[in-house]
Write a structure and sequence with these properties.
With 130 residues, the chain is an alpha+beta fold. It has a single domain (33-124), classed as Ferric Hydroxamate Uptake Protein, Chain A, domain 1. Helices cover 24% and strands 34% of the residues. A hairpin with a 2-residue loop joins strand 3 (72-74) and strand 4. The radius of gyration is 22 Å and the shape is elongated.
Length: 130
């Protein structure tokens, strides 16, 4: 009798596991990779962080526009994202960091790959007004 209870318990666990997989499968994002995108203010305080699943060929500009609010890209530069806004006098701007290093290109041509961490960081422009 004890063996039957153990057998039923094992069977119940298997049924629950299969049901979970069947139910959860549609909610698991599918893609070729993922990136983590962070938006930080002048004090490097995190405003928003999001893990974004992408497919090969997806444009970074489209991924950012679909996953963040108040996105403005002008002439290949990220001008606004979330609460960060580049002022008209360019006293501050949004710098792009990739895996802890300052990016050397704008958002439209910035390469990215699976596991990359991108940060859009508000930065003081030392050359503004000079």
């Amino acid at each position: 009798m004890k063996n039957k209870k153990v057998l039923w318990a094992i069977l119940a666990i298997i049924v629950i596991a299969v049901a979970y997989i069947v139910i959860a499968k549609p909610f698991i994002p599918k893609g070729d990779g993922s990136i983590t995108v962070k938006v930080t203010d002048l004090d490097q305080k995190l405003i928003k962080e999001k893990k974004i699943v992408f497919n090969t060929g997806d444009k970074l500009t489209d991924l950012v526009s679909k996953n963040f609010d108040n996105v403005l890209i002008k002439d290949g530069m990220l001008m606004n994202i979330e609460s960060l806004v580049t002022p008209a006098d360019w006293a501050q701007y949004i710098a792009i960091w990739t895996n802890g290093k300052l990016a050397e290109v704008g958002i439209e041509t910035l390469p990215y790959g699976d596991g990359d961490v991108l940060e859009f960081r508000m930065t003081v422009n030392e050359y503004a007004g000079k």
